[in-house]
Amino acid sequence: MKLCDRESKPEGTLVDVRGVAVGGRTIVVMAGPCAVESAEQLLATARAVQASGASILRGGAFKPRTSPYSFQGLKEEGLELLKWVSREAGLPIVTEVMDTRRVEQVCAYSDMLQVGSRHMHSYPLLEEVGRTDKPVLLKRGMSATLDEFLFAAEYVLNAGNEQVVLCERGIRTFEQSTRNTLDLNAVPVLKRLTHLPVIVDPSHGTGHRWMVPWMSRGAVAVGADGLLVEVHPDPDAALSDGAQSLKPEQFDAMMREVRAVAEAVGRTVAHPLYARD
Amino acid sequence: MKLCDRESKPEGTLVDVRGVAVGGRTIVVMAGPCAVESAEQLLATARAVQASGASILRGGAFKPRTSPYSFQGLKEEGLELLKWVSREAGLPIVTEVMDTRRVEQVCAYSDMLQVGSRHMHSYPLLEEVGRTDKPVLLKRGMSATLDEFLFAAEYVLNAGNEQVVLCERGIRTFEQSTRNTLDLNAVPVLKRLTHLPVIVDPSHGTGHRWMVPWMSRGAVAVGADGLLVEVHPDPDAALSDGAQSLKPEQFDAMMREVRAVAEAVGRTVAHPLYARD
Amino acid sequence: MKLCDRESKPEGTLVDVRGVAVGGRTIVVMAGPCAVESAEQLLATARAVQASGASILRGGAFKPRTSPYSFQGLKEEGLELLKWVSREAGLPIVTEVMDTRRVEQVCAYSDMLQVGSRHMHSYPLLEEVGRTDKPVLLKRGMSATLDEFLFAAEYVLNAGNEQVVLCERGIRTFEQSTRNTLDLNAVPVLKRLTHLPVIVDPSHGTGHRWMVPWMSRGAVAVGADGLLVEVHPDPDAALSDGAQSLKPEQFDAMMREVRAVAEAVGRTVAHPLYARD
Amino acid sequence: MKLCDRESKPEGTLVDVRGVAVGGRTIVVMAGPCAVESAEQLLATARAVQASGASILRGGAFKPRTSPYSFQGLKEEGLELLKWVSREAGLPIVTEVMDTRRVEQVCAYSDMLQVGSRHMHSYPLLEEVGRTDKPVLLKRGMSATLDEFLFAAEYVLNAGNEQVVLCERGIRTFEQSTRNTLDLNAVPVLKRLTHLPVIVDPSHGTGHRWMVPWMSRGAVAVGADGLLVEVHPDPDAALSDGAQSLKPEQFDAMMREVRAVAEAVGRTVAHPLYARD
């Protein structure tokens, strides 16, 4: 039996991201820009997504990009901005770490460490984040089977860190009308196999802004414990992934739809009015 | 512009299956056994699914099976049973046709013609069903792109038949924990591209009975106009696809869940009490 | 044990296409245009490919096309042209049949019946060609596992026809630099599992003319019993698949390369000088 | 234009692995065990593969394994053994590095750095190996498009290291009869797009020992510049990947077959007699 197997903890794991519980009845929404670009961009996004009900701010300081000539993130400066905005807005943050040598540094700035799709198979990195005391957001590799995904989580747990959230973000298939094929089947299968929370990233999963609200509704209906959504105040000017980023008002409309589906399946989403108080 | 393009009919197509409208605000559930096995099996299933809110009875008389040594369906006898049960229960029926030489015969017994996943690329068959006056349920090929799927529908429309319902039923991917990878992304993409109704088959899409209620909820949340679900009074004794067939009581429970999600997204499902009246 | 299993006939099956043996030490090359377009086009191609060492002429009279608005083949007229050119050039022909109602007619004109990728799962068609006395060229479905491919052949054998040649023609994957992913692994796996001959179609397998000679060499090196190659006197003017059709002089150069590899692996290809005598 | 584009260096790049040139007319074979297990195992394998014509010894000291509970390699001890055997046998060695913190250490022991399939997308690692003066063996990610593969190489070149060899090692598809689907199409496509040498790993590509000689012949026929082959003196006792490892005598027989195909396509493979002198 693996540490992450459902039988080893039938009641399920609650992951605590600086006071926000992932894996309970309340669906947790993590939102923010693909990449941190400036203080203004980040703070405006943080305040907007918080007002709509997001509980965790996402934003990349180190960006894995297919081409070495694309924008690679603001790096240390991006971490500083994340920390500053996190304090200003009162939102915990999640950001990606790609390099074992950076884990300690990213821990100093972030409330949750993201291991991205491209590094799900990077076992030294999984072990290193497993040795920290920060919760980990582990994204499924783009062609990882669910078995391999769970074994990747097992590397983190086996290194001593049980605070792992799994994230389905789309897989590689022959279909070309979407950037990836968001695999919502993964949610009920994972929830059955493991006690770890499972969230869904419809932004990378589809690559199309207009699809994000549809697939977010679907994710909640199939049992996801949360969503990871890209929001940008001006998507057309975004330095990365603009085509899949929602505008703040679109995100707000989406949150209302998601809330209705959540209630239909016996869950809740944090309400902005309560969240503000 | 293709005949099936959304722009050629922005208001959407209503497909009329002997009085049941597919493509409107009401989500239509087609349910029944994978294969017709006997009068008792079929009638019991029909009455049960009808009581739970299904509006159309599905059942295979001609079964496409990977092995020539597997049960191939009751054929003509199966068609007779479908017709008899349809009258007894007052439910329209949908059944598969695989052979151009059989189209006329199947039309005589059935209210809707199904073209299965294995024949989506069979253009002579598509043209032949396009020449009938029966509505057509066209399933996506197991590795058909959405573009190819729409072109397959176009063969039917171009032959003169506009009454086509599209059905997502899972695609082939590397993932092995499910029989196929049910591609819920297909629903919003197709709804945007075409005016034809789109339904989802979570039974073939997943291959696991326990997943069907989860993915049915998801299908409705992402905008499906209906569901195609396998139900069998005794799944363990089924001559085909028992592992993915629901028991009647499981189907009934699922319908209650689906109804709640439908309401959350501004749709309805036929209610058994009203349906009986 | 299936009829097509290697153990049921360890010595292998020789398929006789009007005097040309497929499955022996001599590698058989089937070449010709994707679609029959005119008497001139077909005869010129036939004479050219024969001079370079091809033993069987391919050409489509009924063309399965993704769009109903694309050229669908010359149909009956195409069959007449194939028969006429076959006599003129002294080459047996292979052509596709898609419709159970056409099997008898196509038999009257053709020396070998092709069941295409889109119809590999069409069991009524497989049974119908299984009832004829013509050899069958069965192409792998675009996402068929090798197990399913062998079961499709089994439908033909079980109907009474043992003269089946299997053809790998590329599968659907995420990779987009080629039209399909030609799966050369299929050749040794199939040769181990079945006694039926296995050939390779590098034209559909890659979709790029310049790749065809490379992959033909590879196919022979991994043990293929033959090749199916698209050749057109004027590819840029072809009514279908021009981008993957070789010019006659390119085909001739390719045959020399293939011959060298065949000899390196202990096989031969018919030599044009001997073929002419 | 990218640094790795064919047009930027039409004559092709020769990669120098301690005196062995990869990318020229001579096909280079790298062979050895999946994992370094002991001095005896490694030295016996080295002497055997060298006698059969291999020019570079492969062997893993740090092993990326799906499960944290599988054998993870001998680590530092494995590096020491590789260095010792390399000197004893007079063969350059290639071994994998997975962690940016280990690059300097692995450089001190190895003649060539391997970046494995699981780390092809790990850009910090690519940059780090790009800053060394060791040649790099870069394996294609298990679902990386060829475009992405070339961009990964570009990270290394852009960091200052032009000595990169690309390795096709099988991709993820729906087919389950092989461990991966070895994509030989990648060889001609890559050779056309880039000036970097391209080799093939038929061991991981197929997962079956008996297939390795077949696919090695195919790889050479489609233009590969080399092969990477797993050989183990006692595959059934191997600590990893035994099912796909050749016995030394099987490797020797394979090398004779490969040599014949190489000559048929105008290439050579180092001959053991000459290599010994």
Which terms summarize this structure?
homotetramer, alpha/beta, 10 helices, 11 strands, 36% helix
How large is the share of residues in beta strands of chain A? 15-25%
Unreliable spans of chain A: none
The secondary-structure element order of chain A is EEEHEHEHEHEHEHEHHEHEH
The most extensive interface between chains reads:
C-D, 40 and 40 residues
- Report the helical percentage of chain A: 25-40%
The counted number of beta strands of chain A is: 11
Please state how the strands of the largest beta sheet of chain A are arranged side by side: 3-4-5-6-7-8-9-10
Reported for the largest beta sheet of chain A, the result is: 8 strands, parallel, barrel
Cα distance, first to last residue of chain A?
44 Å
Alpha plus pi helix count of chain A: 10
Content-based structural category of chain A: alpha/beta
Tell me, briefly, the overall form of chain A: globular
Q: How big is the Rg of chain A?
A: 17 Å
Average residue pLDDT of chain A: 96
Oligomer: homotetramer
